[in-house]
Amino acid sequence: MARELAKSSSNLNDIVYSGRPRNEEPHVKKTTKKKSEKIEYIVRVDLDELKIDDEEFDDLQSLYQLFDLDKDGILNFKEYEKLLRCLGYRLGEEQARLLATSVSVDKSHYSVSFNEFLKLISMQQASEPDEETLVEMFASFDKEDVGMIPETLIKQLMGSKDDINEEDIHEMLEEYFRLAQIKGIKTGRPDGIPQKAPETPPPGAGSKTRRSSKAPSRKSVLSGGEDTSQLSISKGEERWIDYREFAAMLQQ
Q1: Which residues have CB under 8 Å from 110's CB, separation 6+?
Q2: How many C-beta neighbours within 10 Å does residue 220 have?
Q3: Which residues pair with 32 in a beta bridge?
Q4: Which superfamily is assigned to 23-126 in CATH?
Q5: Which CATH code for domain 129-191+231-252?
Q6: How many CB atoms lie within 10 A of CB 236?
């Protein structure tokens, strides 16, 4: 009977995860104590190599379990998409598939095992700047060394990236100003910064609309490729941002 049940379970997995190897090793260990079944994920990756500490591992495991409804250590594509949204990723279906193929053996149905999920998180973290790097980048625009830069400059820095849209930028900034109000952080023009008349923007400025809704993380939108050295600071009345606090918020 047990053999038939195991065979039936194996056949079911072949149907649900047909893109995965038929002889794939199990992803969970099941134990029964006092009529209660306990599920434990089998970890086959090196957490130290992935730079995932014990606390982060526990958080990632708990999050993964929320979407692993059948407790088999594998998420189907729909479950995987929901997990990505929970992590703050706003990807189209094709983008989500491409991300899955970077770690998953399932190249046709894009299922993601728990170990593959850990690899995915590690890859994303490795591609993102740390807090110190962000502060140094912001500080390069702080010519008066006041520890603050204008909101307009932050918008320009973020808007220079193709993987974030205006709505994402707005939400991020409003979250900062909400936290600034709670913490009592000033958002007005810093002392020592002269008030200057606003410049007239060139024809067509601001007309470009970004369509991408990808947001792998809040901090990643400021990393990589684009040359931001020529970005200008708008001279009108506006809110100012403590970039050390902002960088710390992006790391959360």
Answers
A1: 19, 77, 80, 96, 97, 100, 101, 104
A2: 19
A3: 37
A4: EF-hand (1.10.238.10)
A5: 1.10.238
A6: 12
Q: Are 215 and 167 in contact (CB under 8 A)?
A: no
Residues of the chain with CATH 1.10.238.10: 23-126
- Tracing tokens 């001279």 back to the chain, one arrives at 235
Give the span between the Cα atoms of 42 and 177, in whole angstroms: 42
Q: For 164-217, how does the pLDDT look when each residue is reduced to its tens digit (9 = 90+)?
A: 778 888 888 999 999 999 999 999 988 877 765 444 444 544 434 333 334 445
Strands 36-41 and 74-75, by their bridges, are unpaired
**Tokens coding 166:** 């205006």
Residues sharing a CB contact under 8 Å with residue 78, sequence separation 6 or more, in sequence order? none
Q: Give the list of residues 6+ apart from residue 188 with CB closer than 8 angstroms, or none.
A: 239, 240
pLDDT, tens digit, for every residue of 117-173?
999 999 988 776 677 888 888 899 998 899 999 999 988 887 766 567 788 888 889
Give percent above pLDDT 70 in the chain. Answer: 73
pLDDT for 165 equals 78
pLDDT of residue 187: 92
